[in-house]
Design goal:
This protein is mostly helical. It has one domain (2-101). Helices cover 80% and strands 0% of the residues. The protein contains 3 helices and no strands. It has helices at 2-32, 49-78, 81-101. Helix 1 (2-32) packs antiparallel against helix 2, helix 1 (2-32) packs parallel to helix 3 (81-101) and helix 2 (49-78) runs antiparallel to helix 3. It starts with a helix and ends with a helix.
Length: 102
């Protein structure tokens, strides 16, 4: 039972390292981006502001995936098989969801 809790904790920790920064980018966009900031009178001049936030979110995901790949290699040489399979599962899950998003 203790090993199962440890694996669950491993999953939660790694997903939190991905979800918390992405949620921060979402909050940053939600509270700071104003699409009508450059409008003059009745002329709407929308900017492509959300594209920058999407690029920032993609950079966070890429850095997370690279860190997970590095940890996967490190766990392989350390011979920690259970955590290695958990990391592999998370990596595949994120890669599949990225492919579906694109």
């Amino acid at each position: 039972m203790n090993a199962k809790k440890t694996l669950t904790r491993q999953i939660i920790e790694r997903m939190a390292l991905l979800v918390i920064p992405l949620f921060g980018v979402y909050l940053l966009m939600k509270f700071t981006y104003n699409p009508h900031a450059h409008c003059v009178g009745n002329e709407h001049r929308h900017t492509m502001g959300p594209v920058g936030y999407i690029i920032l979110g993609a950079a966070i995901i890429i850095i997370w995936v690279l860190a997970i790949i590095f940890e996967q290699i490190w766990r392989y040489f350390k011979k920690d098989r259970k955590v290695s399979f958990v990391i592999l599962f998370l990596l595949l899950l994120v890669i599949i969801s990225m492919i579906c998003f694109i």
